[in-house]
């Protein structure tokens, strides 16, 4: 019933434009989607949340006296992630070039972080997820 989507970033990413809602010209409860790399991509968080907002608007208009519960069974493979979260698809596989702003990890204790592997990191060290200026070349 609002004129704008609550999740502005999802609206911009999915619709490629502003956050203002458009007039519904079809049933928002049914959405045909052409999936795949050459079509509309993959069904993800941005698609789900915008469709949910549209469905809520319709339900509030038709049946304002009810409360609603929505249950989703959605694979998290294409789900919402932190903007600079660790995601192999967003990482450069080689040295140099533009890198994502990946967050650092503070190694708090040996168990759970380092496992049974021998490595140069010790509890209290900070692990960087990208090459630092003083690092040697990776190969």
How does this model look, in words?
By secondary structure, this protein is an all-alpha fold. The protein has 2 domains: 8-78, no CATH class; 84-139, no CATH class. It contains 3 helices and 2 strands, in the order H-H-E-H-E. It has a two-stranded antiparallel sheet with strand order 1-2. The N and C termini lie far apart (56 Å). The mean pLDDT is 76.
Rg (CA only): 22 Å
Structural class: mainly alpha
Q: Give me the number of helical elements.
A: 3
Summarize the main sheet.
2 strands, antiparallel
Q: Report the uncertain regions.
A: none
Give the N-terminus to C-terminus distance in angstroms: 56 Å
How many domains?
2
Provide the helix percentage. Answer: 10-25%
Which whole number gives the mean pLDDT?
Answer: 76
- Which term fits the overall shape? elongated
Question: Which strand order spans the largest sheet, edge to edge or round the barrel?
Answer: 1-2
**Quaternary structure type:** single chain
The count of β-strands is 2
Beta-sheet strand percentage? under 5%
In N-to-C order, the SSE pattern is HHEHE
Core attributes:
139 residues, mainly alpha, 2 domains, 3 helices, 2 strands
